Amino acid sequence: MQEIERNESALSRFTRRTLIVIGLASLVAVLMFFASQLIDVMLLVFASILVAVAIDGAVRLCQRYLPLSRPWALMLALLMICLIMVGLGALIGPRLGEQLPQLLAELPQAFLQFLNNFRELPGIEAAMAEVEEPAQLIGAPVIDYFTNFFSTTFGAIASFFLILLIGFYLVLSPAKYIGNVLLLCPPAKRDRLAQVLCMQGRALRLWLLSRLVSMLFVGVFVALGLALLGVPMAGALGLVAGLFTFIPYLGPVIGAIPTLLIAFLESPQLALYALILYFVVETLESNLVMPLAAKGLVRLPPAYTVIVQLAGAAIAGVAGVILSTPIAVVAVVTLQALYINDVLGDDIEVLGGR
C-alpha cells in the first residue's frame, strides 16, 4: 500500500511539473506571438528610451560640473542641445539643403552607370548573355527600393517626432517609470533589479557616447577628404557617412556606397581615391581615435555585433539593423549581471561597469 501511495505521489508531482512546463511554454509562445505583432511599437519605444538615455547623460553632465537640481539641469541640457542643433543648422544647413536633393537625384543615375561599366568588363557580358535585360533586372529592384524608401519620408518624420516626444516624457521623471517596472518583480528582488537597470542605463550612455565620437570623426574627415579630392556634394556625403556610422561595422560599409557611386560617376580613378580615403578614416577611427579619446566606452566584439545586426535585419528590417546593437548591449548587461554573476556565481565585470 505504501509503495502504491509513493507511486501516486511521484506521479502527482510529475503531472504538476509537466503542467507547469506546458503552461510556461504556452505563456512564452503567446508572448512571442504578441511581440512579433508589436515589433514596430517595441522598437519605437526602445528608440525613445535611447533618446531619454542620451538626454539624461547630458543632464548628469550638467549636474557633475554645476550645482543644479535635476529640473534646472534638464532645462539647461535641453537648451544646450537646441543651441547646438540651431548652430549646426545655420552653419551647414544651407549647403546641405542644396546638396542632399542633388545627391538623391543623382544616385540612381550613378548606379546605372556603374552597372553598365561593370557589364563591359571582360567575361561579364558573356556570363550575362542568357539573362534578358540584366541591367534592368538587377538595377530596377534596387532603384525601386530606394524610391520606396524615400517615399516613406513623411512616415519616418512622424515616427522621429513621436520618438522625441516619448523620450522627453521618459526623461522628465525616470524614477517614476523605473518604479513602475520594479513593482512587477518580487519585493526581495527589487533592489537587485534597480541595480541592473542602472547598469543598463550607464552602458547605453557609454555606447551612445562612443557612437557620437565615431560619427563626428568619420563625418567631418570624410567630408573634408572628399572636398579635397574634388568629389561633388562632399558635405552631404560626409553627413551620410557620419549618420551610417551609428551602426557599428556594417554602417560604414553601407555609408561608403553613395560616395563610391557619385565618385564613379566622375571617374573610376576618383572612386578608387574615395575608397582609399574611407579605408584610412575608418582605420584611424578604430585604432587611434576610439582607444585614445574614448577609453572605457562600451564596444561589443565585431563578430557578435554583425551577427546581432543580421538577426535584427531578418526580424525587423532597417529598424532592426539600427537598434540591434543597443538592444544587444542591454541583453549582455542583463545576462552578465543576473545569470553569470547571480546564478553561476562568477565575479565578472559587467559591460560598462565601473
From TrEMBL:
It is a multi-pass membrane protein. InterPro entries: AI-2E-like. The chain crosses the membrane at residues 18-35, 41-59, 71-92, 149-172, 212-240, 246-265, 272-294, 306-335. It holds the Pfam family AI-2E_transport. Keywords: Membrane, Transmembrane, Transmembrane helix. It is found in: Membrane. Belongs to the autoinducer-2 exporter (AI-2E) (TC 2.A.86) family. This is AI-2E family transporter. It comes from Billgrantia ethanolica. The lineage of its organism: Bacteria, Pseudomonadati, Pseudomonadota, Gammaproteobacteria, Oceanospirillales.
